[in-house]
Write a structure and sequence with these properties.
The protein is α/β, with parallel strands linked by helices. The protein has eleven helices and eight strands.
Length: 258
């Protein structure tokens, strides 16, 4: 069985294709999924889907970097995070590739998300792009203050950086999740990282509806396609697809307390 640890359900819910998506996932043995938050609307949808599909979809709530220049409602977010169906805070993090001009506001927002995760003892789902040092600095503070299970600190989702950065993330105690990017033709260095990550820190995701893996490039991504990520990792790590499915599912259950 496969667990897709990072799905943005917004577009599927909006265009009415969610039932079809869930059927495809079932056929591909992707039986559990984490619905990612990031905005007030995404957080509400994540919790709603977790309520409607218990044991199959799990909630997540946070404020992502695009919310840094708005007026995120932390009283509302606190209510979401307190709900037992919400298993993590996120996604949240830093992106200086698209929004370097809001870096200071992003750091403040990320720190507030991390504080909430620490308060509730729930893992954090982290996005980072072109912000390695600031991401690590904030995560170091987070890890020092973490009082819950050390295996449940969080995950760097859709990992795209090098082995040196992966080593620092792992040293802090986080997991690393690979998306369809690891299947891309130009992802040779990332495939080296995928060989490096220890079994007990490895997760897989689609980041649906984005980043469809080879051989599904050109299609809208969906949870069923996470099997292609698993196949790539199995090839890289010299093991079976079943082995990758089992160990990543085990890690997901630990991290998100499923």
């Amino acid at each position: 069985m496969l667990i897709d640890t990072h799905v943005h359900f917004d577009r599927f819910a909006k265009d009415g294709t969610l039932p079809e998506l869930l059927e495809h996932a079932k056929e591909a043995k992707v039986l559990e999924m984490v619905a990612i938050g990031g905005s007030s609307a995404a957080n509400a949808l994540s919790l709603k889907l977790a309520q409607e599909h218990p044991g199959r979809i799990f909630g997540c709530a946070g404020y992502e970097r695009d919310e840094a220049t708005g007026a995120p409602d932390f009283a509302e977010l606190r209510t979401f995070v307190a709900d037992p169906l919400v298993k993590a805070v996120g996604e949240t993090g830093l992106d200086y590739f698209y929004s370097a001009e809001t870096a200071a506001a992003q750091r403040k927002l990320f720190a507030e998300n991390l504080a909430l995760a620490g308060e509730f003892g729930k893992p954090v789902v982290v996005h980072t792009r072109d912000a390695d040092e600031d991401t690590l600095a904030l995560l170091r503070d987070f890890s020092k203050d973490w009082k819950s299970d050390p295996a449940r600190l969080g995950v760097l989702h859709c990992f795209t950086r090098d082995t040196a950065f992966a080593r620092q993330v792992l040293d802090l105690g986080l997991m690393i999740s690979f998306s369809g990017i690891v299947t891309f033709a130009n992802a040779g260095p990332l495939r080296e990282v995928a060989r490096y990550v220890p079994d007990d820190r490895l997760l897989i995701e689609t980041d649906s509806p984005y980043l469809a893996p080879v051989p599904m490039r050109g299609n809208r991504n969906e949870p069923a396609f996470v099997v292609h990520v698993a196949k790539q990792l199995a090839e890289l790590r010299g093991c079976s697809v079943d082995s990758i499915a089992n160990l990543t599912a085990k890690n997901a259950r630990i991290l998100f307390a499923l």
